[in-house]
Amino acid sequence: MFRGSMVAIVTPMAADGTLDFAALTRLVEFHIENGTDAIIAVGTTGESATLDWEEHIAVVRHVVETVRSRVPVIAGTGANSTSEALFLTQKAMEVGADACLLVTPYYNKPTQEGLYRHYKQIADRVAIPQILYNVPGRTACDLKPETVERLADIPNIVGIKEASGSIERIQELVQRLGERMDVYSGDDALAAAAMLNGARGVISVTANVAPQLMHEMCVAALAGDRAQAETLDARLAGLHRALFLESNPIPVKWAVAQLGLIPAGIRLPLTPLSEALYPDVRAAMRQAGVL
Length: 291
Fold this sequence. Notes:
It is a single chain. This protein is α/β, with parallel strands linked by helices. It has one domain: Aldolase class I (TIM Barrel), CATH 3.20.20. It is built from twelve helices and eight strands. It has an eight-stranded parallel β-barrel with strand order 1-2-3-4-5-6-7-8, surrounded by four helices. The protein is globular and about 45 Å long. The two termini are 33 Å apart.
């Protein structure tokens, strides 16, 4: 249903942490001009953890209204409370999102049966395409392939963002799911390999900084052109590393601010990028041809 380079877009903020909707408009236009295939609003990279419900839906609504159906808009609506995830998913559908991305419930460590029931209840109650999101390094919760396979029987669960850091997990999911559900890489460094092994795209942090190059790499990988995909990915490799030198989205917000697209605001408990890391991120941006 969704393909290619899908940016997990940052949420622009002023120095005091207030949302900057004018910068968000600029950012959306920047991505459309540079070939981004879909925009994910208010995911982890969008600082969903520190936005209240009203702000969360306001950002999704603004992205939808700015995009004007030119590319799909996917709203991050996951939570560790099923009722909260249900509420956010319903609201995202009401303001016009094309799909929702739901991270596994974090901190409370549900069983696989609990995960199955969590996702099934949301999918049964909200008739919008939904993408599962597995990122055990952040959530202390691993959505196992056998549970994903059970969820693939639910018609409006259409994909999974797999961010376990394992190409073997990507391969297993592709094999298990076949045509029933799309698999997306949630790790930029594995994205080219994932698509060459059957994944349909990447939900990307790197695309915030180098959207055109990320799009071109995805086109090559989805076409099975290994040589071209790997050549382009080599130019992106520095960003794949540098944008995670501190917790995401600290480095990526700094990098996007260096492009002049957003102010430097970020909300506590996250803090601005350590000055000692500026040269590393700048070098990666130069390698990718964006600075």
